[in-house]
Amino acid sequence: MPELPEVETTRRGIEPWVVGRRVAAITIRNRQLRWPVDLPHDLVGQRVRSVGRRGKYLLLEIDTGHLIVHLGMSGSLRIVGSDEPLETHDHIDCRFTSESHTQHAEGSHAQHAEGSESSNEILLRYNDPRRFGSWHFHEGDFATHWLLESLGVEPLGNEFSGQYLHRISRNRKVAIKNLIMDSKVVVGVGNIYAAEALFMAGIRPATAARRIPERTYDKLALTIRQVLADAVRQGGTTLRDFVGSDGQPGYFGQSLKVYGRADKPCLVCHTLLKGQVLGQRATVYCPNCQRSQGFQRV
DNA sequence: AGGTTCGCCTGCGGGC
DNA sequence: TGCCCGCAGGCGAACC
Protein backbone atom coordinates (compact mmCIF):
# COMPACT_ATOMS: atom_id res chain seq x y z
CA MET A 1 0.00 0.00 0.00
CA PRO A 2 1.56 2.94 1.35
CA GLU A 3 4.16 4.67 -0.71
CA LEU A 4 5.76 7.93 0.28
CA PRO A 5 2.63 10.11 -0.08
CA GLU A 6 0.53 7.82 2.09
CA VAL A 7 3.24 7.63 4.76
CA GLU A 8 3.68 11.41 4.67
CA THR A 9 -0.09 11.87 4.93
CA THR A 10 -0.06 9.65 7.99
CA ARG A 11 2.90 11.53 9.47
CA ARG A 12 1.21 14.89 9.08
CA GLY A 13 -2.00 13.50 10.48
CA ILE A 14 -0.59 12.10 13.69
CA GLU A 15 2.06 14.73 14.36
CA PRO A 16 -0.12 17.37 16.03
CA TRP A 17 -1.79 14.74 18.21
CA VAL A 18 1.25 13.03 19.66
CA VAL A 19 4.07 15.56 19.80
CA GLY A 20 4.55 16.71 23.36
CA ARG A 21 2.60 13.83 24.86
CA ARG A 22 4.02 11.02 26.91
CA VAL A 23 3.61 7.33 26.20
CA ALA A 24 1.18 5.92 28.75
CA ALA A 25 1.04 2.32 27.55
CA ILE A 26 1.74 0.18 24.53
CA THR A 27 -0.56 -2.75 23.88
CA ILE A 28 0.59 -5.39 21.44
CA ARG A 29 -2.14 -7.84 20.47
CA ASN A 30 -0.25 -9.56 17.70
CA ARG A 31 3.55 -9.50 17.58
CA GLN A 32 3.75 -11.43 14.36
CA LEU A 33 4.26 -8.66 11.86
CA ARG A 34 6.99 -8.73 9.20
CA TRP A 35 9.37 -9.17 12.11
CA PRO A 36 8.32 -10.14 15.63
CA VAL A 37 7.53 -6.97 17.53
CA ASP A 38 9.78 -6.64 20.55
CA LEU A 39 9.69 -3.22 22.17
CA PRO A 40 11.53 -2.31 25.37
CA HIS A 41 9.44 -1.73 28.49
CA ASP A 42 10.93 1.64 29.36
CA LEU A 43 9.14 3.49 26.58
CA VAL A 44 6.33 4.32 28.97
CA GLY A 45 6.71 7.80 30.33
CA GLN A 46 8.84 9.04 27.47
CA ARG A 47 7.76 12.15 25.63
CA VAL A 48 7.29 12.34 21.88
CA ARG A 49 9.63 15.00 20.52
CA SER A 50 8.80 14.81 16.83
CA VAL A 51 7.26 12.69 14.12
CA GLY A 52 9.53 12.25 11.13
CA ARG A 53 9.78 10.12 8.05
CA ARG A 54 12.60 8.40 6.20
CA GLY A 55 11.39 6.88 2.96
CA LYS A 56 8.37 4.83 3.90
CA TYR A 57 9.41 4.57 7.55
CA LEU A 58 7.67 6.70 10.17
CA LEU A 59 9.91 7.89 12.98
CA LEU A 60 8.42 8.74 16.34
CA GLU A 61 11.24 10.43 18.16
CA ILE A 62 11.02 9.93 21.90
CA ASP A 63 13.48 10.78 24.67
CA THR A 64 15.92 7.90 24.18
CA GLY A 65 15.48 7.07 20.51
CA HIS A 66 12.93 6.34 17.80
CA LEU A 67 9.96 4.15 17.27
CA ILE A 68 10.37 3.04 13.66
CA VAL A 69 7.09 2.06 12.01
CA HIS A 70 6.56 0.68 8.53
CA LEU A 71 3.04 0.26 7.14
CA GLY A 72 3.90 -2.58 4.75
CA MET A 73 1.22 -3.21 2.15
CA SER A 74 -1.90 -2.73 4.20
CA GLY A 75 -1.01 -0.93 7.41
CA SER A 76 -2.58 2.22 8.77
CA LEU A 77 -2.10 4.38 11.84
CA ARG A 78 -5.10 6.20 13.18
CA ILE A 79 -5.72 8.60 16.02
CA VAL A 80 -8.76 7.36 17.90
CA GLY A 81 -10.44 8.02 21.21
CA SER A 82 -9.61 5.68 24.07
CA ASP A 83 -13.10 4.17 23.86
CA GLU A 84 -12.90 3.30 20.14
CA PRO A 85 -14.07 -0.30 19.64
CA LEU A 86 -11.46 -2.76 18.48
CA GLU A 87 -11.57 -4.01 14.92
CA THR A 88 -10.02 -7.01 13.25
CA HIS A 89 -6.29 -6.57 12.68
CA ASP A 90 -5.89 -3.79 15.25
CA HIS A 91 -2.51 -5.17 16.30
CA ILE A 92 -0.91 -2.38 18.30
CA ASP A 93 -2.16 0.53 20.41
CA CYS A 94 0.07 3.27 21.69
CA ARG A 95 -1.80 5.18 24.38
CA PHE A 96 -0.70 8.68 25.28
CA THR A 97 -1.21 10.74 28.40
CA SER A 98 -3.47 13.72 28.11
CA GLU A 99 -0.73 16.26 28.76
CA SER A 100 0.35 18.07 25.64
CA HIS A 101 2.70 20.93 24.91
CA THR A 102 1.17 21.69 21.56
CA GLN A 103 -2.19 23.04 20.52
CA HIS A 104 -4.46 20.60 18.74
CA ALA A 105 -5.90 21.47 15.41
CA GLU A 106 -9.58 22.34 15.42
CA GLY A 107 -12.08 19.58 14.85
CA SER A 108 -11.03 16.97 17.33
CA HIS A 109 -12.17 13.47 16.48
CA ALA A 110 -11.64 12.13 19.96
CA GLN A 111 -14.84 12.00 21.91
CA HIS A 112 -14.11 13.92 25.05
CA ALA A 113 -15.25 16.83 27.10
CA GLU A 114 -13.00 19.85 26.69
CA GLY A 115 -10.89 20.46 29.75
CA SER A 116 -11.41 17.03 31.20
CA GLU A 117 -8.02 15.56 32.04
CA SER A 118 -8.89 11.89 32.21
CA SER A 119 -11.10 11.68 29.13
CA ASN A 120 -8.58 13.50 26.98
CA GLU A 121 -6.57 10.39 26.29
CA ILE A 122 -5.92 9.36 22.73
CA LEU A 123 -4.68 6.22 21.11
CA LEU A 124 -2.42 5.75 18.16
CA ARG A 125 -3.88 2.57 16.70
CA TYR A 126 -2.08 0.35 14.21
CA ASN A 127 -4.17 -1.84 11.92
CA ASP A 128 -2.57 -4.14 9.37
CA PRO A 129 -4.50 -7.02 7.75
CA ARG A 130 -1.58 -8.50 5.85
CA ARG A 131 0.96 -7.90 8.61
CA PHE A 132 3.76 -6.91 6.27
CA GLY A 133 4.44 -3.84 8.37
CA SER A 134 6.89 -3.51 11.23
CA TRP A 135 7.53 -1.80 14.57
CA HIS A 136 11.00 -1.36 15.99
CA PHE A 137 12.61 0.74 18.67
CA HIS A 138 16.09 2.08 18.02
CA GLU A 139 18.23 3.97 20.48
CA GLY A 140 19.89 7.15 19.29
CA ASP A 141 20.33 7.96 15.62
CA PHE A 142 17.63 6.34 13.46
CA ALA A 143 19.89 6.36 10.41
CA THR A 144 22.01 3.61 11.96
CA HIS A 145 19.12 1.17 12.26
CA TRP A 146 19.73 -1.88 10.07
CA LEU A 147 16.54 -1.28 8.10
CA LEU A 148 17.48 2.30 7.31
CA GLU A 149 21.24 2.32 7.02
CA SER A 150 21.44 1.52 3.32
CA LEU A 151 18.47 3.53 2.09
CA GLY A 152 18.94 5.80 -0.91
CA VAL A 153 18.14 9.49 -1.19
CA GLU A 154 14.83 11.20 -0.48
CA PRO A 155 13.03 11.97 -3.75
CA LEU A 156 11.83 15.33 -2.45
CA GLY A 157 15.25 16.24 -1.08
CA ASN A 158 18.17 18.12 -2.63
CA GLU A 159 20.35 15.13 -3.43
CA PHE A 160 17.80 13.70 -5.82
CA SER A 161 18.24 14.85 -9.40
CA GLY A 162 18.50 13.65 -12.97
CA GLN A 163 22.25 13.78 -12.63
CA TYR A 164 22.08 11.50 -9.60
CA LEU A 165 19.86 8.98 -11.40
CA HIS A 166 22.06 9.10 -14.48
CA ARG A 167 25.23 8.51 -12.46
CA ILE A 168 23.76 5.62 -10.51
CA SER A 169 22.35 3.94 -13.62
CA ARG A 170 25.72 3.56 -15.38
CA ASN A 171 26.26 -0.06 -16.44
CA ARG A 172 22.93 -1.11 -15.04
CA LYS A 173 20.65 -2.93 -17.40
CA VAL A 174 17.81 -3.25 -14.92
CA ALA A 175 14.49 -1.88 -16.15
CA ILE A 176 14.16 1.79 -15.28
CA LYS A 177 10.94 1.09 -13.39
CA ASN A 178 12.74 -1.36 -11.13
CA LEU A 179 15.59 1.08 -10.63
CA ILE A 180 13.40 3.88 -9.35
CA MET A 181 11.57 1.42 -7.10
CA ASP A 182 14.88 0.28 -5.58
CA SER A 183 15.01 1.78 -2.09
CA LYS A 184 18.80 1.68 -2.15
CA VAL A 185 18.63 4.18 -5.01
CA VAL A 186 15.72 6.40 -4.05
CA VAL A 187 13.18 5.83 -1.30
CA GLY A 188 9.42 6.07 -1.31
CA VAL A 189 8.65 5.33 -4.96
CA GLY A 190 6.38 2.29 -5.16
CA ASN A 191 4.45 0.58 -7.89
CA ILE A 192 1.78 3.24 -8.38
CA TYR A 193 3.95 6.33 -8.51
CA ALA A 194 6.71 4.65 -10.51
CA ALA A 195 4.20 3.90 -13.27
CA GLU A 196 2.75 7.41 -13.11
CA ALA A 197 6.11 9.19 -13.13
CA LEU A 198 7.32 7.14 -16.10
CA PHE A 199 4.17 8.03 -17.99
CA MET A 200 4.60 11.71 -17.24
CA ALA A 201 8.22 11.53 -18.38
CA GLY A 202 7.37 9.58 -21.54
CA ILE A 203 9.67 6.70 -20.67
CA ARG A 204 8.84 3.06 -21.32
CA PRO A 205 9.07 1.14 -18.02
CA ALA A 206 11.17 -1.76 -19.39
CA THR A 207 13.92 0.46 -20.79
CA ALA A 208 17.37 -0.57 -19.55
CA ALA A 209 18.49 2.09 -17.10
CA ARG A 210 21.90 2.50 -18.75
CA ARG A 211 20.34 3.41 -22.09
CA ILE A 212 18.57 6.47 -20.81
CA PRO A 213 20.36 9.77 -21.44
CA GLU A 214 20.91 12.35 -18.74
CA ARG A 215 18.43 14.81 -20.24
CA THR A 216 15.70 12.23 -19.93
CA TYR A 217 16.72 11.53 -16.35
CA ASP A 218 16.32 15.24 -15.65
CA LYS A 219 12.74 14.94 -16.81
CA LEU A 220 12.17 11.75 -14.80
CA ALA A 221 13.53 13.23 -11.58
CA LEU A 222 11.13 16.12 -12.11
CA THR A 223 8.07 13.96 -12.72
CA ILE A 224 8.87 11.75 -9.72
CA ARG A 225 8.96 14.87 -7.54
CA GLN A 226 5.79 16.18 -9.14
CA VAL A 227 3.71 13.06 -8.78
CA LEU A 228 4.78 12.50 -5.17
CA ALA A 229 4.20 16.11 -4.17
CA ASP A 230 0.83 16.14 -5.91
CA ALA A 231 -0.24 12.94 -4.19
CA VAL A 232 0.81 14.31 -0.80
CA ARG A 233 -1.33 17.37 -1.47
CA GLN A 234 -4.32 15.11 -2.10
CA GLY A 235 -3.81 12.93 0.93
CA GLY A 236 -2.35 9.95 -0.92
CA THR A 237 -3.97 7.25 -3.00
CA THR A 238 -6.62 4.92 -1.67
CA LEU A 239 -7.02 1.78 -3.77
CA ARG A 240 -8.58 -0.46 -1.18
CA ASP A 241 -7.72 0.11 2.41
CA PHE A 242 -5.47 3.09 2.88
CA VAL A 243 -6.83 5.61 5.33
CA GLY A 244 -5.10 8.62 6.84
CA SER A 245 -4.80 9.14 10.57
CA ASP A 246 -8.33 10.54 10.64
CA GLY A 247 -9.74 7.47 8.91
CA GLN A 248 -10.34 9.30 5.64
CA PRO A 249 -9.17 7.97 2.26
CA GLY A 250 -6.75 9.75 -0.08
CA TYR A 251 -7.98 11.35 -3.27
CA PHE A 252 -5.05 10.95 -5.63
CA GLY A 253 -6.67 7.83 -7.10
CA GLN A 254 -8.70 9.97 -9.46
CA SER A 255 -5.52 11.55 -10.78
CA LEU A 256 -3.93 8.26 -11.84
CA LYS A 257 -3.22 8.24 -15.56
CA VAL A 258 -1.96 4.69 -16.12
CA TYR A 259 -1.89 2.70 -12.90
CA GLY A 260 -4.70 0.14 -12.96
CA ARG A 261 -5.82 1.23 -16.45
CA ALA A 262 -4.41 -1.54 -18.66
CA ASP A 263 -6.40 -1.97 -21.92
CA LYS A 264 -8.13 1.36 -21.39
CA PRO A 265 -7.50 4.34 -23.65
CA CYS A 266 -4.65 6.70 -22.85
CA LEU A 267 -6.05 9.92 -21.43
CA VAL A 268 -3.67 11.90 -23.64
CA CYS A 269 -3.66 10.12 -27.03
CA HIS A 270 -6.39 7.45 -26.72
CA THR A 271 -4.04 4.61 -27.65
CA LEU A 272 -4.87 1.49 -25.62
CA LEU A 273 -2.63 1.29 -22.55
CA LYS A 274 -0.52 -1.83 -22.30
CA GLY A 275 -0.12 -4.04 -19.23
CA GLN A 276 3.16 -5.77 -18.52
CA VAL A 277 4.89 -7.60 -15.69
CA LEU A 278 8.25 -6.25 -14.61
CA GLY A 279 10.13 -7.64 -11.64
CA GLN A 280 7.01 -9.51 -10.52
CA ARG A 281 5.01 -6.29 -10.42
CA ALA A 282 2.24 -5.32 -12.80
CA THR A 283 2.85 -2.12 -14.69
CA VAL A 284 0.97 -0.14 -17.30
CA TYR A 285 2.21 2.22 -19.98
CA CYS A 286 1.13 3.97 -23.14
CA PRO A 287 2.95 2.51 -26.19
CA ASN A 288 2.54 5.82 -27.98
CA CYS A 289 3.32 8.41 -25.30
CA GLN A 290 6.07 6.37 -23.68
CA ARG A 291 8.97 5.74 -26.01
CA SER A 292 12.22 4.46 -24.63
CA GLN A 293 14.28 7.59 -24.92
CA GLY A 294 11.66 9.87 -23.56
CA PHE A 295 10.61 11.12 -26.96
CA GLN A 296 7.11 12.49 -26.89
CA ARG A 297 4.94 13.48 -29.78
CA VAL A 298 3.00 15.94 -27.58
C1' DA B 1 27.82 -7.50 -7.62
C1' DG B 2 23.74 -7.09 -10.27
C1' DG B 3 19.58 -9.35 -11.43
C1' DT B 4 15.76 -12.34 -10.43
C1' DT B 5 12.59 -14.93 -7.63
C1' DC B 6 10.51 -16.22 -3.23
C1' DG B 7 7.89 -15.69 0.68
C1' DC B 8 5.78 -13.39 4.33
C1' DC B 9 -0.11 -12.57 5.12
C1' DT B 10 -5.31 -11.54 4.48
C1' DG B 11 -8.98 -10.07 1.49
C1' DC B 12 -11.36 -9.55 -2.59
C1' DG B 13 -13.08 -10.11 -7.30
C1' DG B 14 -13.77 -13.10 -11.19
C1' DG B 15 -14.68 -17.52 -13.24
C1' DC B 16 -16.78 -21.76 -12.90
C1' DT C 1 -24.18 -19.95 -2.97
C1' DG C 2 -19.50 -21.59 -2.73
C1' DC C 3 -14.85 -22.87 -4.05
C1' DC C 4 -10.52 -21.95 -6.31
C1' DC C 5 -7.38 -18.98 -8.42
C1' DG C 6 -4.85 -14.90 -9.11
C1' DC C 7 -3.69 -10.66 -7.62
C1' DA C 8 -2.80 -6.56 -4.38
C1' DG C 9 0.25 -0.38 -2.38
C1' DG C 10 6.66 -3.65 0.16
C1' DC C 11 10.87 -5.52 0.67
C1' DG C 12 14.57 -8.47 2.76
C1' DA C 13 16.45 -13.09 1.92
C1' DA C 14 18.06 -16.30 -0.93
C1' DC C 15 19.03 -17.60 -5.04
C1' DC C 16 21.56 -17.48 -9.66
Describe this protein's structure:
The chain has 298 residues and is α+β, with helices and mostly antiparallel strands. It is 19% helix and 20% strand. The protein has helices at 4-18, 162-168, 176-180, 191-201, 214-233, and strands at 23-28, 48-54, 57-62, 65-70, 76-81, 90-96, 122-127, 134-139, 274-278, 281-285. It has a 4-stranded antiparallel sheet, covered by helices on one side. A hairpin with a 2-residue loop joins strand 9 (274-278) and strand 10 (281-285). The radius of gyration is 21 Å and the shape is globular. The model is unreliable at 105-119 and 294-298 (pLDDT under 50). The protein binds a DNA duplex (16 and 16 nucleotides) through helix 4.
Brief digest:
It is built from five helices and ten strands, in the order H-E-E-E-E-E-E-E-E-H-H-H-H-E-E.
Q: If strands are numbered along the chain, what order do they take across the biggest sheet?
A: 1-6-7-5
Helix-and-strand structural type: alpha+beta
Largest sheet, in brief, is: 4 strands, antiparallel
**Low-pLDDT ranges:** 105-119, 294-298
Shape verdict: globular
Give me the number of helical elements: 5
Order of helices and strands: HEEEEEEEEHHHHEE
CA-based gyration radius: 21 Å
The fraction of residues assigned to DSSP E strands is: 15-25%
Average pLDDT level: 91
